[in-house]
Write a structure and sequence with these properties.
This protein is of the alpha+beta class. A hairpin with a 2-residue loop joins strand 2 and strand 3.
């Protein structure tokens, strides 16, 4: 038998009943029910309930372990009784009755709980980032990013694109932010720049005759934090195509984005072809070139109504050839701030 595990904590099911198995993982939650200890053992793949009876010599060791201690448990898979089945857990029909229990690493007092969502200060979460990433929501975010990257790569390759990797150390080039600089050891006083985007390299590839290119590229920009990314670096899907029109590029992006949302999210995709709104129309109707059209909050021109108004701001705009527009937000007051934040 393998010294650490024969199965993962998300793998065992009712057909495994009667088998002797070994699991390793973190103590996710521990409960003492009348002298019998129940441990939810967690690894990357899921949870399995472990039962430790009080007549076992390792029972005191099981009593001492805190949540997030690392243990290895060997035992027999037993079906749960009907009234104790957990339908919310893939392994909820079975439990592991321990016959041996090894403590691999004891955990100290935790700075914040891992087995539940926490409102711990961000500074604390970042200091103990390895603990923060064990929480379900953060673990799921990391895995979602991996699945999105894998799907994008598989999709673009299936569409005839070739993946390339461009250099990280380069010369400075004008972009939208400041460069990060790396001092050169060979040429004192000279510096490399980290690329803000693979722009120059991908264009070199295209003029060299490579027809369809993509890269999931790190972009290094010395800029302030934004709501959707940390300062310093972020990754973007970068593509180039030869002998194509703007609509060809739009079509490829529609295929990629609709597939990603259909396969990776619970969002409803209402159209496989995105609506095309001319720039002027978008500005006239929404006041922006990137409108959120889910809510239909189009601006309505009411210049004529305010031409003779005593409200000088509107009346002045009307008389000077400007426009007065309003948004009909009927029913908006009935919704909470959370509704709009989640929208």
């Amino acid at each position: 038998m393998h010294p650490y595990r024969t199965h993962t904590c998300g793998e065992l099911r009712k057909p495994h009943a009667g088998q002797t198995v070994r699991l390793s993982g973190w103590v996710h939650r521990k409960r003492d029910h009348g002298g019998v200890i129940f441990i939810d053992l967690r690894d990357h793949y899921g949870l399995t309930q472990v039962v430790i009876n009080p007549d076992k010599e390792f029972f005191p060791a099981a009593e001492r372990v805190r949540n997030e201690s690392v243990v290895t448990v060997t035992g027999v898979i037993v079906p749960r009784s009907t009234d104790t089945v957990n339908p919310n857990l893939p392994t909820g029909e079975i439990e592991l009755v321990a016959v041996s229990f090894e403590v691999e690493s004891l955990c100290d007092q935790l700075p914040f709980p891992v087995n539940q969502e926490t409102d711990a200060p961000e500074e604390t979460r970042l200091e103990y980032r390895f603990l923060d990433l064990r929480r379900d929501s953060m673990h799921d975010n990391i895995m979602l990013r991996t699945r999105a990257t894998t799907l994008a790569r598989e999709h673009l390759i299936s569409r005839g694109f070739t993946e390339f990797h461009t250099p990280i150390l380069t010369s400075s080039s004008p972009e939208g932010a400041r460069d990060y600089l790396v001092p050169s050891r060979i040429y004192p006083g000279e510096f490399y720049a980290l690329p803000q985007a693979p722009q120059q390299f991908k264009q070199l590839l295209m003029v060299s005759g490579f027809d369809k290119y993509f890269q999931i590229a790190p972009c290094f920009r010395d800029e302030d934090s934004r709501a959707d990314r940390s300062p310093g670096e972020f990754y973007q899907i970068d593509i180039e195509m030869s002998y194509v029109t703007q609509d060809d590029v739009f079509s490829e992006l529609e295929l990629l984005m609709t597939r990603m949302f259909k396969e990776l999210s619970n969002k409803k995709v209402v159209a496989d072809v995105f609506p095309r709104i001319p720039f002027r129309e978008s500005i006239e109707k929404y006041g922006t070139d990137k409108p959120d059209i889910r809510f239909g909050l189009e601006m309505i021109e009411v210049t004529a109504l305010f031409a003779g108004s005593e409200f000088k701001v509107f009346a002045g705009a009307a008389k000077s050839g400007g426009a007065v527009k309003v948004i009909n937000a009927r029913g908006a007051a009935a919704n909470s701030r959370k509704f709009f934040d989640d929208a």
